[in-house]
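Need a sequence for this fold. Nothing fancy.
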């Protein structure tokens, strides 16, 4: 077979590990692998891609980014562009396509599959918000970056007796904030799934400051803090209609308000794209390797129109229809854990 591969949407660590696994499993089966450049953009116009060679796949396992490049191009907005996609696949004699992406890339994959083309998806996003999979490629690496940042911020916060507000990515899901915050010992974690009033935030931070004299607050870029004046509304949207949430400046606004109302110096760290850069964690390398290889096997099974999902110890196919249309938000059991440890830290001052 000749199998196409692309990486779409925001990049993350582990994409190259997935491309490598797809190529090695495909070559083992006697297939050819055609890499399209910059996501769906590589299937528009004349198309942009090439047959992958062993030379370019060797040595990429540990590299961040993606050797194929990525973009937020959405051909599903336009019938003519969907035809260009099909024409490029036909012209290059591609028999099946493996798409590595988040909900946006998977939504275009589903449309292409509905039109009769064989597509298998592989979930990746540091937001970890794709339904039916325990983990998406890139999430674990991003959590490690949040955790390391919190470790570092603890020492400087303590030295200066400051409030440190740390803004993390994640869009409408608080997985990155919750997991990084629990692992990094944050005092307060504010996520989109659980709006909180500014009064409650202030009360909590003041309480905490009495116990330990400094505080670390993690806030997700999409979080809602009721009563926090003039956190900007993100208006600029991408081709999939997503606003650029970093322009809300919620971390900066929160730090300003906390300083003003608690009279304790506050600083903000916006982790931004640092969370998407660098080498993948061991977990992500292994996850990407398993998912990439499973995707090629799935193509050969003939049962396409699915996304490969990590469920417990298995990698299983889930129909695109079940995955799309809703995001996986933070499980309520995590909220309980967050509350328990935050309160324990307040009570006896053991939270770092
Ligand atoms: O979906 C991944 C993500 O990093 C989000 O957490 C964030 O809101 C968005 O992408 C940023 O996108 P861009 O790199 O296009 O600014």
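Here you go.
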């Amino acid at each position: 077979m000749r199998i196409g591969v692309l990486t779409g949407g925001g990049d993350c660590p582990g994409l190259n590990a997935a491309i490598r696994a797809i190529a090695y499993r495909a070559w083992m089966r006697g297939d050819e692998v055609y890499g399209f450049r910059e996501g769906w953009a590589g299937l528009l116009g004349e198309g942009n891609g090439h047959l992958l060679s062993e030379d370019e796949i060797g040595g990429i396992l540990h590299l961040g980014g993606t050797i194929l490049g990525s973009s937020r191009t959405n051909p599903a907005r336009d019938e003519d562009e969907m035809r260009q996609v099909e024409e490029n696949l036909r012209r290059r004699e591609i028999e099946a396509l493996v798409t590595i992406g988040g909900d946006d890339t998977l939504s275009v994959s589903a449309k292409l599959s509905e039109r009769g083309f064989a597509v298998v998806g592989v979930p990746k996003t540091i937001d970890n918000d794709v339904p039916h999979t325990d983990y998406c490629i890139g999430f674990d690496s991003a959590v490690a970056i949040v955790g390391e940042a919190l470790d570092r911020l603890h020492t400087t916060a303590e030295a200066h007796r400051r409030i440190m507000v740390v803004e993390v990515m994640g869009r409408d899901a608080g997985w990155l904030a919750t997991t990084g915050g629990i692992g990094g010992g944050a005092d307060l974690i504010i996520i989109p799934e659980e709006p909180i009033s500014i009064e409650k935030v202030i009360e909590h931070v003041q309480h905490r400051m009495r116990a330990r004299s400094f505080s670390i607050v993690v806030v997700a870029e999409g979080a809602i803090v009721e009563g926090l004046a003039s956190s900007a509304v993100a208006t600029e949207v991408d081709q999939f209609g997503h606003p650029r949430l970093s322009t809300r400046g919620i971390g900066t606004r929160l730090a300003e308000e906390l300083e003003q109302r608690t009279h304790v110096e506050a600083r903000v760290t916006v982790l931004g794209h640092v969370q998407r850069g660098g080498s993948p964690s061991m977990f992500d390398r292994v996850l990407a390797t398993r998912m990439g290889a499973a995707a090629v096997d799935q193509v050969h099974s003939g049962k396409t129109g699915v996304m490969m999902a990590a469920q417990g110890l298995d990698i299983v196919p889930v129909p695109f229809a079940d995955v799309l249309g809703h995001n996986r938000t933070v499980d309520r059991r995590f909220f309980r854990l967050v509350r328990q440890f935050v309160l324990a830290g307040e009570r006896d001052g053991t939270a770092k």
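For context: The chain has two domains: 2-138+280-323, 142-276.
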